[in-house]
Protein 1
Amino acid sequence: MNGMTGRGDLERLVPLVQRAAQEEVLSRFCHVAASCKADGSLITEADLAMQQRLITELEQHWPGTRLLGEEMTQAEQQALLEGGKAGLWCLDPLDGTRNFASGFPVFSVSLALIRGGEVVLGLVLDPLRNECFTALKGEGAWLNGEPLSLGDADGELAGTLAIADLKRLPSPLACRLATTPPFASLRSIGSVALDWCWLAAGRVQLYVHGRQNLWDYAAGRLVFAEAGGHHGTLEDEAVEPMDLAPRSAVAAVGAQRFGSWQAWLRELPE
């Protein structure tokens, strides 16, 4: 992709995104009004300003590679995805907009590079905590430049901490998770990109989500996979196409734990 080759370019990309987030996102935290989009989700001035900033700056540094952003129409997104076989940025300029608009301090910027139908680079920035999660396909994952590796971490479900967004799951499954969970405790933090990255850092061990978009998961899921995590979907898709269709997500730290988690999710209620 037009000069984007590996760690050197990633090291150029990180400060670019950090600076943009400081100026376009953090400067507006607790000082911005939100409005509703057609699907009921929120949008703020920070979403739009961050997206436009990165469109401009990425084009300056890596010309010729287009950017697919959340704050575009579906027709624009589809045209970019179909025409971006050689390389395409995929951006969520503010993942956790409702948190951001409410003053709840958990949100992120998520940027991925898609090439040849797969994500080859991921960057998720938590600007409030100054945590930047990055990954290159086949080369590893890092938190602020330090390697992330889940190693052989494994164990039973009973002692784990889980993240789940109950409102986006089928009602029977959401009820089971709420009333007879196999884990020790449940969280929902409101940023899909950080869900994946906190899994990659070992802060939680189980994950299930019923509906997330390409710009939500592209970067964070690569970080988790490169850290050694295991993931799939509720539908057990063998191959997940790189398209705009929302996807479910199932993930766990540890191969044995992932298998046990999948088995529990497949069980039919009595």
Note: The CA atoms of residues 183 and 196 lie 18 Å apart.
Protein 2
Amino acid sequence: MISVMPTDLAPHVSSGVLETEIARWSSPAGRAVSGGDWCDAFRLSDDVLALTVGDVSGHGEAASGTMHFLRAAIVKAMRDGCNPSETLCIANDLAYARSGGVIVTAIVGVLDLRERTFAYANAGHPPPILLFEREHRFLKQARADLPLGIFRHHHCADHVEALSDESLLVLYTDGITEHARDLLLGELELAQSARHAYDAPENETARNIAERVLRELRGDDDAAVLTVRTRLS
């Protein structure tokens, strides 16, 4: 089952500096109606957007319940003004206290359309990919950027990346890059599919990337993709 989740953002958001197009795609594993992956985009101000993607270990209703609980906490922390690493510290406290030894990977980011920056923190999650006209790269992460729920005290690094006039930022869960249990192949497929999506802006970007990567081999894990395309308004 494939679901496209609603967002409180219109597909096109204009700041007077950069215009953005946001797309999301999500698919629970197998025949499940819900799963442990999430991706969200919402407005913090006219010029600032919040982005988050995450993956709760396990599948089905148990993972889904934890996912909704943590996602809500992350959204609240970001709306309350916490920066990305502070937000993940709050999420870690909740994940660590959750019974059953739940482990969560997540990214929290803030995209400033006026400053043209993407500030983010990563808790053990597959790194976003950022594409420009002539290049792409997987964004950096530090060794201390560990998953949530493992240690009582958690602190990950804050990173900042510059955006160009036209760029494509892709956040995803490992159900995309590990669907064939080959991470290197999965990252190559993702990079190629993201480049195709960059060059075909008229298509629904997140779905386009997911369907090109997965093709006939869906894998047995939840999967999600969040894309943000920026261009001059």
Note: Residues 60-79 form the longest helix (20 residues).
Protein 3
Amino acid sequence: MKEEVALEELQEIVVKCKKCRRLVAYLREVEQHKPRRYKDWDYWSRPLPSFGDPDSRLLIVGLAPAAHGGNRTGRMFTGDRSGEWLFGTLHHFRLANQPNSFRRDDGFSLKDCYITATLRCAPPKNKPLPEEIEHCRPYFLEELALLKKVKVIIPLGQIAFSQTLRSLREKGVGIPPLPFGHGKVYLLQNGQTIITTYHPSQQNTQTGKLTQPMFDKVFEMAKETLKAQS
């Protein structure tokens, strides 16, 4: 399949990216000072490729890899608490073949779902600089062009939401100013639907800002939207 090959080629380019000197240096620093519990890990310490079903109708957009999660394991959301929430929910809704993933070679796979991120490298203090996001934008724009069957987009958190809107506008989709909030549903002029959610970070899940029923509801709405369009 042409698009699948193109997606694989794009991820090979992503992994070799060194546009952001601050992030390149930070990833090196993280690996040199890894926690004792991960002392036997050979950290990925490179930009992360996106992954999932190339024929997916559902696209999930994260913010950035965790320094000791995806940056360690080499796959987005793999090996961190946010991933436990996300993957458990995807499995519940039959979008993943298992409820969690700890290594990129553990057989975890997605069905009718694709995961990407606003930023491909773990940033210091989880706070990317505007220019770092801009350096990553061309990769996301290319994915939007290649993932031709996407009908529903779920950005995880406000930054992913705002950056998704900006990228879609760059692709020529007319989108008025849209407020962020959990569980909002926006039908775009290109036929795609955006459903918003708070990010499943520990800061949100441990404080109760995001509960499991709240997160489940977002994916229920996504499944209902896809069913209505099929």
Note: The radius of gyration is 17 Å.
